[in-house]
Write a structure and sequence with these properties.
5 helices; 5 strands; about 20% strand; three-stranded antiparallel β-sheet; Hypothetical Cytosolic Protein, Chain: A; alpha+beta; binds zinc ion
Length: about 120
């Protein structure tokens, strides 16, 4: 007879609404990115971004908002070293990087880490 009615009521009382609520309560979701060295994903703001600019130069993007192709690393020395060893940064940015580039980037990366520590 009215099985359709009772079915709809059941759906409304189900988990669907509860799930929806938790999403709203946490507000907007942070975009997640993953580290090119270890693959761990984290909120975008907690990873260090490297960006390839229009001129093809690679830089540590402290603002996280620079235009261009980006690659992310955890704010950890180990991840930078791993990315260097396995050429993960150059692969992610589709740009060859030599040891001099890595040396320069490591300097920028270290400065960024030092700033993060100061903030914490
Ligand atoms: Zn990592």
């Amino acid at each position: 007879m009215n099985t359709r009615e009772s079915k709809r009521a059941g759906m409304r009382a189900g988990t669907e609404t509860a799930e929806h609520k938790t999403v709203c309560k946490t507000g907007h979701r942070f975009p997640e990115r993953s580290c090119v060295a270890c693959g761990a994903s984290d909120a975008k703001g907690r990873l260090v971004r490297f960006v390839r600019g229009k001129d093809g130069s690679i830089a540590c993007d402290a603002s996280g908002r620079a235009r261009g192709r980006g690659a992310y690393l955890c704010a950890r020395e180990e991840c930078f070293r791993a990315a260097e060893k396995r050429s993960r940064l150059s692969a992610a940015l589709k740009c060859p990087l030599d040891s001099e580039d890595y040396q320069r980037l490591h300097g920028e990366f270290s400065a960024f880490l030092a700033r993060l520590e100061q903030k914490a």
